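Request: Not sure, any thoughts?
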Amino acid sequence: MRVLTCGHYLPVGRATALLETLTGLHLATGFTARARRRAAKKLIATFLPHMKDLLVTAPMLHADETTGRAAGALAYVHVACTEYLTLLHVGGRSSTDIDNGGVLKDFTGVLVRDGYAGYDHLPAIHAWCGAHDAEPGIMRTARCGRRACLRWWPFGAVLRGRVLHNHRLVRKVRSESEGRYRPGSVSGGVVRLSARSFIARSACR
């Protein structure tokens, strides 16, 4: 039942009903709730510190936040993750709330993030998330104030196509180098600079 409620996030009532169907036993909902509470305490006391240590020492992390409901109110769900590890915590959207996750404030590797200013104070090496490469172009046309710029609202789709083209180019160079590829010779910076130059040329024509 701990796996159902803490691992698969089933509500207590549904987890109890599922266990009763599988085992044929009658279980009180309160029993399942207490099992979840005991499991959560053990995770917080033992697993969570270990997870934070692993994330802080990772070479690269992705961080983001999104809205959700917690304790009956709107809150922000923060994530710090690698390809294999994901840590979530709930809070507001301030820099302090981001630090309360216990990972990013001590992380000094590469942090892949969006443009939200709440991450600016962190000591990591900051890298722009490729999924947000189209946003500066859209925002720039909105701030321009010129009515003629409204025709450039579809510009984000064009930029995404260019970024994906550059990504395929980098992969091709790596695959054809036959082991001669050196990290940094072709990098995400090429894609980033290309995207910026494309924005500069296209945003306010």
About this structure: Confidence is low (pLDDT under 50) at residues 136-154, 185-205. The first strand starts at residue 60 and ends at 70. Residues 29-56 form the longest helix (28 residues).
